[in-house]
């Protein structure tokens, strides 16, 4: 068996095409039946007409005061149009049209109309439910049912990106459809006008009532504002606020200067205060004192006096009058400098105390000014609150006063926000049913359903039908295709000749040629490695294994080969019966048990020119007989006497005889009955043989209906028709 698990499976479109061809008549019959039924149903349907009115809906501003108008916000047009579309679809408009056109008297929409017969009476319906209706309740119920029926016949379709909307009505009457469509559009316009008129009147009354309250509220807020001004003596808050702001700025500026001055003096004061005693040496070390102009000038005089003493000391002695006078001048200058330094030190302390007092005074003045500003701010905040209240009340009053005037002026003049752009006309042709489309769809859908159905049946059909199935499902080598044997029965239904002798007696050239083709296929399959002993087996009984093996043996004998056929099916032997051997003839069981009876167990079939060893008496345990050494020795002995030995064994699916015999033979031929044997059963048998290391030469597809396969594919017609075999007629039988 050839298999390639790693091969990529490709969808075989030709296989599906052959499936369609095989069941084409069934598909056409199903499609034709469905199409005829659809055509009859369509012809029986009542035609329905469609009339359409086109409306243009315009967005408009509200006529009453809204929060959007107060703050200058615009509405959402998309929401507005969606709302209008829903109003057009509302049941209330359908009710208006039913009343206007008196559709209760139209049998199409009133299921309780007398024209429908007594069986449609609503009174009967409710009576059966155990309810009793009065005349008024009955009329109301009939009216509501009519509204529902008409409501379902109305469709509203907005035109994208426009203000247009199409209102359509379906009816069995084209005139009524046009009237109802126009009536729906007019009912919508009337309902909008009624809503606007009622809203305007309601708004006008509410505005006038509200206006009086707003006027009182405005007067009260103005009175509170004036009382607050009088209470706080407010004339010009802005001017007072400006004056205090300037005063606050000036005090702040002076405070900064005073603080800076105090910090400067505080540093000098701390230096003077840190001296242990105020003498010439300590005071002359303070930068603030040395930087004073008078001290600097006195220091210059001191320097000059020191230079003079230094010069005179070089000429005169310390007691010289000039030296004494010069030292006296130097002491006087130093004394004057010390006095001045002490005065400056005392002045620094006084200046620091004065600067600190000035800073404290300015801080008090700043705090007082801030308090006045805060008080004024509180007063101004309260004043602004009263002013805002007055302005708000005045603006609201003026807006309502203006709207009251506008509403009063325009109360009697209202324009609809919609108008009919294209009125409905009486349709000439029905809108539904679209008979041609329905019939065409029925045809297409039924064809598709039929094709899907045959694909499903093909998927569920696990039998092997033709050569393609052998390759597609089994991935096995096909040795040959054996058709059904024709003309095996006479006119009275009696068998003209045994099926096992069809190779000799049948006039079915197609069958004979197929057996010769099988002979050639097996010859080629065993060319590289000859197989003298062949085992014929199948999956289940009744697949024509024995008939095929006998006819194949006869075909081999025609090539002047010495052929032996062994019936190894020890459980249900049929060779002796089909070849009409004498009852009780010796066979395989005798030859194995008593090797000396081998020659008596071999029977020559003269017309077929083959030797046959029938099964003989059935032993209690056939497998033990076949598994004996005597049987193996028998096969070896016979192989020396014959050119070809064919072993007809029991089916694989029933017993394991064939599995064992495959180890004693040179090759296995697997017979499959076409359109009968399940692929999984065949696959199981081939797999078991392959696992037992049997040499599987290939499979034979047996009992094929050649004419049927030729009609649905190119499998056999070209093969046999070229030799005029496929055209022969007659009654077939299983091979």
Structure description:
By secondary structure, this protein is an alpha/beta fold. Among the domains are: 1-45 and 433-461, no CATH class; 237-410, Helix Hairpins, CATH 1.10.287; 462-726, P-loop containing nucleotide triphosphate hydrolases (Rossmann fold), CATH 3.40.50. The strands form three sheets. Strands 5-13-12-7-11-8-10-9 form an eight-stranded mixed β-sheet, sandwiched between helices. A four-stranded antiparallel β-sheet has the order 2-3-1-4. Strands 6-14 form a two-stranded antiparallel ribbon. Helix 8 packs across helix 13. It starts with 12 loop residues before the first helix and ends with a strand. Residues 1-8, 61-75 and 716-735 have low confidence and may be disordered.
Output the keywords.
single chain; 735 residues; alpha/beta; Helix Hairpins; eight-stranded mixed β-sheet; four-stranded antiparallel β-sheet; 27 helices; 14 strands; elongated; disordered N terminus; disordered C terminus
Layout of helices and strands, plus pairs?
Elements: H1 13-22, H2 24-44, E1 49-57, H3 67-71, H4 77-88, H5 91-101, H6 122-128, H7 135-152, E2 154-158, E3 164-171, H8 174-231, H9 237-273, H10 280-283, H11 287-290, H12 293-315, H13 321-410, E4 418-422, H14 435-460, H15 467-474, E5 478-483, E6 485-486, H16 502-505, H17 509-525, E7 533-538, H18 545-557, E8 563-567, H19 575-578, H20 588-593, H21 598-601, E9 603-605, E10 610-613, H22 622-626, H23 629-641, E11 644-648, H24 657-661, E12 667-673, H25 679-691, E13 696-704, H26 706-712, H27 717-721, E14 732-733
Parallel strand pairs: 5-13, 7-11, 7-12, 8-10, 8-11, 12-13
Antiparallel strand pairs: 1-3, 1-4, 2-3, 6-14, 9-10
